[in-house]
Design goal:
The complex is a heterodimer. By secondary structure, chain A is an alpha+beta fold. Chain A is built from 2 helices and 6 strands, in the order H-E-H-E-E-E-E-E. Chain A starts with a helix and ends in a 9-residue tail after the last strand. Classes of the chains: A alpha+beta, B alpha/beta. Strand 6 (105-114) of chain A pairs antiparallel with strand 1 (2-11) of chain B.
């Protein structure tokens, strides 16, 4: 269970974005999570819920989009969804395959409250 | 007051990956091949390292950083044989790079002199360590025959991200329902080119082949 350390890293990087871009109050985070990222979505949500409230003082919605694990066969070049974590080409049954997608943790966007006086600093 | 969506598109793992790559590069420049050993608790990582150290008997320079949640028992077992530092995670289920670097920093200049192999023995766990790059050149998963031959498919990330698989405790094969052929087939469905090395760290079978594999890997990866 390493989701808490991932959430800590997520929070740090979100705060960095909020600071660098002088964004308003955070309401939501959109994240792409690879099926093979090693992160369990429900545990991530649980850890995030607890830690986000401590950091930002209010609920922040975490939207997860699960990205399927896809690979390419290096023999016949077919791109396929890896079913049941069997890294075998469904066409030529080759096992020399390379992961193309599904390992990522990508911060897509932040939902923030936009104040009318968006240009001024509130720090 | 309205809610606005601000696009970011940032890879959350990029900073950690860059740190691991930089560490790997530094070790490469120093001629040190780093191996991250992962397994479930009790598969025999420490025993494998003891057998490796005994086989090389000082002819190959190795050091060990050993991670555990608590105690320095593994470090005590290895200390008579090789330079070792215990990394205590205080509850964390896996090692992370900063702790490894701290342990490495505690090795003396004599211990680092001519060092060829740095083994990082991870916390016993087949799940979380698979997701953490410690700047190693090779990841080796150790599976013992008492755990069952169905494990590669059950812990695909551990086996997919490993560069070799050691099957330990083969001296117990007559007593347990474990097939070397079945485990190899299962492992190759997860990673088709995974080398499988059967050993008995306790009796010594396969240790020479494992040590040869390590030396050849060092040559291939570091070119020395």
């Amino acid at each position: 269970m390493h989701e808490r350390s991932l959430v800590r890293s997520l929070i740090e990087q979100v705060n960095e974005e909020l600071r660098n871009r002088s964004l308003g109050s955070l309401r939501g985070i959109r994240l792409e999570l690879g099926e093979f990222s090693g992160v369990e979505p429900s545990l991530l949500q649980l850890a995030f819920g607890e830690m986000a409230r401590d950091v930002w003082g209010h609920d922040v919605k975490l939207d997860l989009e699960i990205i399927p694990l896809s690979a390419q066969c290096l023999t016949c070049h077919k791109i396929f969804h890896v079913e049941g974590f069997r890294f075998v080409c469904p066409d030529c049954h080759g096992t020399d395959v390379q992961i193309r997608s599904g390992e990522q943790m990508q911060l897509v966007s932040l939902d923030v409250e936009s104040a009318n006086n968006s240009g001024s600093s509130t720090a | 007051m309205s809610i606005q969506s601000v696009p970011v598109q940032k890879d959350l793992q990029s900073a950690r990956r860059a740190a691991a790559d930089a560490w790997r590069k530094e070790l490469t420049e120093r001629g040190i091949l780093c191996i991250n050993l992962i397994s479930s608790p009790g598969a025999g990582k420490t025993s494998l390292l003891q057998a490796t150290a005994r086989h090389w008997a000082g002819t190959v320079r190795m050091a060990v950083l050993v991670g555990d949640i608590a105690t320095d028992r593994d470090a005590q077992r290895l200390a008579p044989l090789v330079p070792v530092r215990q990394l205590t995670t205080g509850g964390a289920c896996h090692l992370e790079l900063p702790l490894v670097q701290t342990g490495f920093g505690q090795l003396t200049s004599e211990e680092l002199e001519g060092l060829e192999f740095l083994f990082v023995e991870n916390v016993g766990n087949l799940v979380c360590p698979a997701s953490h790059d410690l700047g190693e050149h090779m990841r080796v998963v150790v599976l013992s025959v008492t755990e069952g031959d169905d494990k590669p498919g059950k812990y695909p990330k551990a086996f997919r991200t490993s560069d070799a698989c050691v099957i330990n405790k083969i001296d117990l094969l007559p007593y347990v329902p474990f097939s070397l052929e079945a485990v190899t087939t299962d492992a190759h469905l997860v990673r088709g080119d995974l080398p499988v090395l059967p050993v008995s760290a306790f009796k010594g079978d396969g240790i020479a082949a494992w040590c040869d594999f390590l030396r050849k890997s060092r040559q291939d990866i570091l070119g020395t």
